[in-house]
Structure formats: C-alpha cells, structure tokens
C-alpha cells in the first residue's frame, strides 16, 4: 500500500518493517547547496564528513527495509569547496542552526576554509565519498551510471569545463539481486543492426573463427534487435515544475531504475521524496511507493501531483494512497 511519511528520514524509516520494500530510488539534498528551511535537514552539516555520516545512517536503515534481493539507485551530485563566504556558507549556516559559523564582526556565516585537506575551489568528491562509505557498510557497489544532462545550465566560471553530469549509483543489498535487464534494453541503432546481421551471416569469413556462426538463427528474433542498457544516460533536466521545490529529478531519469529494479505491484521507496517524482513514476508504472520528507508542504504538493497520475498499468494498490 502506498503511503507518505513526514519527518526525518532515519526516524521514519525506523517505523517500517525489515525487508518490506523492493527497491529504493532517491536523490538526497546536495551538500551546502540549498536551504530547505527545516531544522533537521540534511546538507547543512559543518563538514563533508559529517554530511556523509548522516547520509550513511539513512542508507543503513534503507538497507534494513530492503528485500534481500533489493537495490538502491542513488542520484548524487558534487559540490565545490567555497571561499568560506557566499551562498554555500549561508546554506551551511542552516537558518542560524550552526551558530558557531556566524562571524559577528563581518556579520556573515563563515564555513571552514579547508576540511580534512579539501581547499577552497576543490571539487569535494561527494559522490565517491558516499559510494565508498556505503560499500564499507556492506552494500555491493554495482554501477556508476552517468546522467548526462543534455540541457545543463550554463556556468559563468572561466577556469574549468561546465558541469553537465551527475551520478546514479546502483547498489545492491546482496551479491545476487533483482535486475530486469530485459525491461530496460535499448533498440540497436540501424547501423549496429546491419553490422550484427552481416556478422552472423553464413558468408562472413570471421564468423566461424569468432564462434558466432549462426546462419540458421533468425536475426528477426525479437531479442536480437536490442542491446543491454548502457551506463551513460542522456536525459534533459526537468520538464515538471513545482513552484517551491528545487532539484527534482526528471521522470525519464528514474523510469529505467524502477522498471529494472521492481516488478509490477512492487514497492518503491524514496526517503527524500521532495516533489514526489518517485511516487508519480511508480504509480504510472503500476508499482506502490513509500515517500518520506521532512517538509509537510512538499508532501501535500507531491500527493496532489501523484493523484493526477493515471497508471499505465493498473494494480489493486494504484487506486489511492494517504498522507500519514
Ligand atoms: C533533492 S530533494 C529531492 C527531490 C526529489 N527527488 C524530487 O524529484 O522532487 C531533497 C529532499 O530531501 C528533503 N530532506 C532534507 N533533509 C531531510 C531529512 N533529514 N529527512 C527527510 N527528508 C529530508 C528536502 O526537504 C527535499 O525535499
């Protein structure tokens, strides 16, 4: 049964039974980038290490509630160490929560200029810090999918290339896990299909050597017109706009995650639900969802969004859900 829970991710996850969800797809708040206006929010910690520790605690609970064959699809972007002033320090100040960061003389919030060897201007490397922390805690790190943003925002920066990608790590609870590669296979490009057809023809001089001679096999066989999904995904940034919410992931980005990671009727978890993209896609694809967010207003808006979705595949549960 689908449901939304309002509160801190760790606390809400603790209320869910062990092994009760099939997969998790989520994008946690980035480090030092946005102020979601809640005192318990993640992303405003005083150092990257504290931020990673808080996220790791959330994913410990996700691991507990995941089915043994469950997967986690984790979208995460990087941050740059700032000058100690400016928007990053404001976000890190967390509405005045980190009072020790407030400099009374300059009347600005100042974050440390270096953290554990990270200098101002350095890329912090948050995605890999998190991936390695989760691997250390028992997750199987299976893929680093690159989300190539085909319409990324221009940057005014003049001393490095414009950032145009984020990571989606595929992590599994067990070495063998549910992954429906057929559900997300891609059609072969015409030129590749032609090459493949030539390669398998009886007249191909290399075919026997390569052990792929199969002149009797019928190329028109459905499966042979597809290839396995690759790990660079080209998806433009969001089409859906919700006034108050920032950093929504596009529906097209998480469709393959949900299709490969769960069966129809399965349960999809998102502990950082935001505008409810995970719920919207899960419902459209005939899955149930559990969404968690600190911000009650986001959840109300998310529920309205999901209520408007007409499932492509109807199951007993996609009829409705309720904010708990
Ligand atoms: C990057 S946004 C998620 C966006 C979402 N993927 C979407 O498509 O709308 C991160 C969300 O995490 C929520 N959040 C921040 N700290 C949290 C915490 N401790 N527990 C639960 N949610 C939290 C924020 O309110 C925000 O909605």
Give your account of this protein's structure.
With 324 residues, the chain is of the alpha/beta class. The protein has 2 domains: 3-79 and 123-185 and 229-323, 3-Layer(aba) Sandwich (Rossmann fold); 187-227, no CATH class. 26% of the residues lie in helices and 19% in strands. The model is unreliable at 211-216 and 318-324 (pLDDT under 50). S-adenosylmethionine is lined by residues 8-9, 27, 29, 36, 40-42, 245, 247-249, 272, 274-275, 277, 292-295, 298.
What layout of secondary structure does this protein have?
Blueprint: E1 3-6, H1 9-14, E2 21-26, H2 48-65, E3 66-76, H3 87-93, E4 102-103, E5 108-109, H4 126-136, E6 140-149, E7 165-172, E8 186-187, H5 190-199, E9 226-227, E10 232-235, H6 251-261, E11 267-270, H7 277-284, E12 288-293, H8 296-307, E13 322-323
Parallel strand pairs: 1-12, 1-13, 2-3, 2-11, 6-10, 11-12
Antiparallel strand pairs: 3-7, 4-5, 6-7, 8-9
Helix pairs in contact: 2-4, 6-7, 7-8
The protein binds S-adenosylmethionine.
Residues 8-9, 27, 29, 36, 40-42, 245, 247-249, 272, 274-275, 277, 292-295, 298 line the site of S-adenosylmethionine.
What attributes characterize this protein structure?
324 residues; alpha/beta; Rossmann fold; 2 domains; nine-stranded mixed sheet; two-stranded antiparallel ribbon; 8 helices; 13 strands; 26% helix; globular; disordered C terminus; binds S-adenosylmethionine
Give a short overview.
The protein is an alpha/beta fold. Helices cover 26% and strands 19% of the residues.
**Would you report the number of β strands?**
13
The succession of helices and strands, N to C, reads EHEHEHEEHEEEHEEHEHEHE
Oligomeric form of this entry?
single chain
Please bin the fraction of helical residues.
Answer: 25-40%
Q: What structural class do you assign from the helix and strand content?
A: alpha/beta
Identify the CATH architecture of the largest domain: 3-Layer(aba) Sandwich
What characteristic shape results from the CA principal axes?
globular
How are the strands ordered across the major sheet? 10-6-7-3-2-11-12-1-13
Radius of gyration: 22 Å
Please indicate the percent range of residues in DSSP E strands (runs of 2 or more).
Answer: 15-25%
Number of helical regions: 8
